[in-house]
Amino acid sequence: MGNFKNTIVFSMLAISSIFINCKGQKQNIATKPNVILIMADDIGFECLSVNGSTSYKTPVLDSLARNGVNFTKAISQPLCTPSRVKIMTGKFNYRNYDYFTYLNPKEKTFGNLFQENGYKTAIVGKWQLNGIEHQLEGFDDNTRPYHFGFDEYSLWQLTKVKSFGERFANPLIEQNGKALPKDENAYGPDIVSDYAVDFIKRNKDQAFFLYYPMLLVHSPFVPTPDSPEWQSPEIRSKQDNRFFADMVTYMDKIIGKIVNTLKEEGIADNTLIMFVGDNGTKNTLVSQTREGPIRGAKGNTITHGNHVPMVAHWPKQIKNPKTYEGLINFSDFYATFSDILGVSHETDGLSMMEVLSGKQTLDREIVTTYYDPMWSPSVTQYRNVFSQSDRYKLYKDGRFFDMKNDILETQPLNDEDLNESEKIAKAKLASELVSFPSLPENSFVRGKKN
User: Fold this and answer.
1) Strand 173-175 to strand 208-213: parallel, antiparallel, or no bridges (unpaired)?
2) What is the pLDDT of residues 71-91, one digit of tens each?
3) For residue 21, is it within any domain?
4) What's the sign of the alpha-carbon dihedral 190, 191, 197, 200?
């Protein structure tokens, strides 16, 4: 009888211990921050008013920047898919970039990372990673987002190319395994952002990760629902560069919708919001800034092709808002998320947690970019590998530029004309650059314009 009682007591203690441990684990997960990564499509550094733009107004992003960290030297890849593959995996392109519009299913993304560590995960917006342009194996697999660690999705260009349906008016959106009915009065950015809001509300009591690669502000530059021209269905898809300003405004408005949801649900304080552009603005656009006009350079390796806006807002963690002028690489996001989760990582980046905590700067003077777009001749001409500091840039092909005095890179510096500080700067860049592989001699385009 005594043994039976002891067994019961032991069992109850064991059950109690399991309950406490499980409860403790749940609480630990709950105390982790929610993380929202928003990546706008085709927007350069010059397009945020907090960064000096006079052509566009971005009050929501300006507020996030002034109450968080405004990163002034975030360096992307010059083109969308190279940036997306890099940011999602934390790896340089030479390690895992195979095709334009494709992410190899063998890769692990930050979606997998968060999911493995107890987070609810979702992705909304633009996918374009199944290899649909080339009909690669699995191009029509509508479960691919699940494979990459996302519990839910609402996406454009998952299994269908854009000829089947655009992203703005009357969009073709695939959502959790089904194509939504086409609606000529629907607006793609509203559909996916509404889904994001619903995801936040449904998961407010547990840690979540939301990745929002936006549909805005990529061409075609067309009216938004706030544009007067939207009231005329026959011109909703009429392209004109003047609508770009409306699209930037609407992008900022959508981010405001997400911010307001976090506040309404009482979870804004412990939610990290990160905003970044995927590459520079399209080269048909000239934006006015306090420093003068800037022409976009998407696809090009000059500053205006890969210098993007970046903002972090996290009230619980960022106690002293600031502007951070250190170099940020797209491989840093995966490392940062690993640090937040308290797990080890094998990436090519550095964690930004010290910057977000206001303690110190990253141990970095140089960012190196491996860029082989595999897209079209218009951008393949810029393929190269290059290292840059906050002022100088050195390419694998030997060209060396002073970006402060020659931002458009029209006059390479000659070795015989370098002063001592320029020689030292070039030597540092060369020391970094030599550790990166050269591009294959016989390049070919594996992709179509999109």
Assistant:
1) unpaired
2) 999 999 999 999 999 999 999
3) no
4) negative
